[in-house]
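Quick bug: Cation efflux protein cytoplasmic domain-containing protein output formatted oddly.
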Amino acid sequence: MPPSPLRSSSRASTGVAPQPHPKYGSVGADDGRDPQRSNVSHSTLKSFVALPDEASKIAFLDSTRTHHHPHSKLSVGDHDTIRSTPLHSPLSSPRLGVMFDQPLSSLEDDPKNDKLFFSHSNLRKLALDLSLWVNIFILLTKAVAYLETRSLSILAALVDSILDVVSQWILSYTERRSSKTRSSAHYPAGAARLEPLGVLSCAALMGFASFGVLKESLETLYEGLWTARGEGGLDDTVAASFIEDENWSSFWSMFSVVFVKLALYALCMKVGHVRSEENDGENMYYVDSTLEAVAQDHWNDCLSNAVAAVALVLALSNEHLWCLDPIGAIIISLYIINSWYSTGKEQIEQLTGKAAPSEFIDELYEMANNFDSKMEVDVVRAYHFGPKFLVELEVVLPRDTLLFESHDLGMELQYEIESREEVERCFVHIDYETRPYDEHVVSKVPELRERYRPYNRTYSGVSSI
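Here's what came back:
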């Protein structure tokens, strides 16, 4: 049975001749590609054609395998390690072959690797450790200030600091668990979604605690303005009872916290924004969710301590301004609730698989479309899989493309996409024509599945029905 018109390849209809494979080529054909991506000479190809049987040809192809990315360090004759391994062993992967062929000492001594290690990993650890110890110290400072002044503004800031320490411990635990289960049998796809789940838990804790401080502040303000109000105005004795100890050291300690937290906020934001090597620097698609949450803690502390310090100094200056203290606590609580609501909403979007930005999808399309001259991109999908993205690519190759050739192209395209920092995993689906329907939708609807079934096994000229 001839192929259905619906399955006729767009490339075949235009009469474009199939291009030779960049690694294995074709006898007497010049594909006009970059010489770095064609590592098999014309004489070698003649030798390949002259081989007597299929087994010899497979052995020959296996001996000349090379990663046809232009920056590959492998060449013909550099495959002793790969040649000595089974065809589907881990070492048969071109990218892994590069890793195993290169001595470990050279990787350790590479200045570029050292630079990348110190520029991100060590700075990230420094930012998290420093944030934790500073938060503990500030928590003790606020506790002393609250015991001295009984200020509700300081109480709101103290609750924020307590939850800062708790939330940072939660983030550290979820991050450690997600990294340990990356290759676990219980979590085949990794547990990267534990990180946004930890951030979401912190958002809930912050919200509940802030609601408690908000309730206390409103009750205090109501009691002072209405319950203790005399006929001639505010009762001075009640007003004076809100601020009993004019300890200005508490004000200066709260004021100094603002600058410390501002510096930590800048550090966490700088280290937490990760840009992949493929990015042009204009857009940053991947943000470290753990460091982003810690940075938000620092920024909240900056504002809460600033408001608490101002409310405290005004209340200390004039006992008739006592109401500014609960008002300051209300402002701090409302800001923290709103801030963590936004953070929780963002984490829910990551957990539920929100689509990636259109700019990022356009970059993926350009990478895949320029990867190989024979490859045509049909569909590009990218959506959140935790803090990073899961990418699905559907690409079209000519009908006469050999199985091992299409496999190698798809695998190397997967390597290329997964090398981006913001990509968690990439799946490449290879087809020989574009489809007028979404396979995932068709598979779930029996009527559509029956409708498109006659076109599913016609490449060999025999229908499945």
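Actually, after a second look the formatting is fine. The chain has a mean pLDDT of 69. Closing.
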